[in-house]
Amino acid sequence: MKGTVRLLSFLLCGAFSALAAGPSSTLVPASFNEGAVIVTDRAAVDDLASSLRDAASAAGSSCTKSEYVVWTEPEEGLEETFNGGVKALGYTYRVLDSSDDEDGRAVAFALSGPQQALAGLWLEAEGATVLAWCVLKPVAAKAPAKPTPALQPSAPAASVPKPAPAPAKPAAPAASPAKPAPAPAPAKPAAPAASAKPPTTKPGYVSGLVLDTQGRPLAGARVFISGTTFTQGQKTNFETETKADGTYSLRVPDGRYQAKASYTTTFEGQTFSFFMDPASGNPSTSVDSSEGGNLNFRWKLSGLRAGSGAGANRYDDFYGSSVDFSYCGLPAKAYCAEKYSAVTPGAAPGGSTITATFTPQGKLVDGSTGKPVVYTFKAAPLAPPGGYPYTDPNGGGRTTLGQGWQYHSTNFNDLPLGRYTLTVTATLPDGRQKPLKLGLTADDVEHSSVTVRWVPWDDFNPASYIGGGIKQMKVFVRD
């Protein structure tokens, strides 16, 4: 979805009207509101059409008939009007994915109706609204796959960061003052077991092998295959699952195809879906099915997601989980609770080394044994007496905890999914150590440690290959 946003300078959004005042839709028995323009120049929407096909694939099918609508001066409340309109027509609206940032707002959605199903993209930015949607090809109903239990415990995963250093010898501060030091780079995956071999390629087939975090065959992984046929240039897609030996093989029309894979399992009563890392390192790798080709994958608990690019630092650029580490800085009532608004000298004066340690409780999601993960950074200086803007005549307090932080919070990214105990300690310039207070809610930042666990996105669809499917956890910290 982010690629679509950059390409169009718009973001997907649910904004469209079913009021009978403008041109009639070619997909549903309703009319758009006044000011809507239906785009008929296919060349003008060619790139958007590709993103629409991805949305259809995320909805579990493919487009049979599409429509593109633009509002250059959208009315206020357009999205609410759309939702009411499709509901009045008997459709059930389901969000596949969404985003909202400085470029605009975005939503990919699916509609289920009594006669047909649709998928679409909504873009809203720069004062305009764009709707791209299509009727989906009917597919046979399929019983949902039973969640596969977590793998049996084994040696620690190769992708788990190295053990934490002793508290008395904190790690060096991060090279970039704006962010905490990242977890150590994951080691290269161990070589697959001798029995884990990709299938022999065959003309007319797309095939491959999916491995777990330990390099063993992973059964029950979902594989989504999409591409374009050679004879008619038709966009098409298929879905299959890996067998007990971790392999898949599917007969497809001659054409060029890509694949993506995901694995669903349960952990602490929650159902998570994980994207597999392509062995090629590029999620856009394709094969010629007329010759036959393998597209292989592996499950990773941490590391940069394929396609994220060097220097990526958003929390969803990683296979691991993320914590939003939020400081009750001045004015504390803006970030935590009113009761923390009093200016205090601070437990960690400027130059102190802050060490955040995540200690695993039990096994990780794949059944392996986790290791402590440590992030360190230097504390920002306290405000001088009369300092700007929220201090008293005696000084003290600060807006950010870390040196160079742009905001009151920062991200701790790429933690292998598990349950952790988090502690945060300040090592003062004189060598003394002081614990900082933590909390999971803004009005209860009173604890020396907190338990950190994650939950999946609402209505997450792994077929979309968008984002990581794990909600970011928020932890509050204060002096």
TrEMBL record:
Comp. bias (Low complexity): 145-161, 190-199
Residue ranges, compositional bias (Pro residues): 179-189
Keywords assigned by UniProt, alphabetized: Signal
Location of the region described as Disordered in the Swiss-Prot/TrEMBL record: 145-201
Keyword Magnesium: no
Matches recorded under Pfam families: CarboxypepD_reg
Keyword Metal-binding applies: no
Signal peptide: 1-20
Protein name from the UniProt record: Carboxypeptidase regulatory-like domain-containing protein
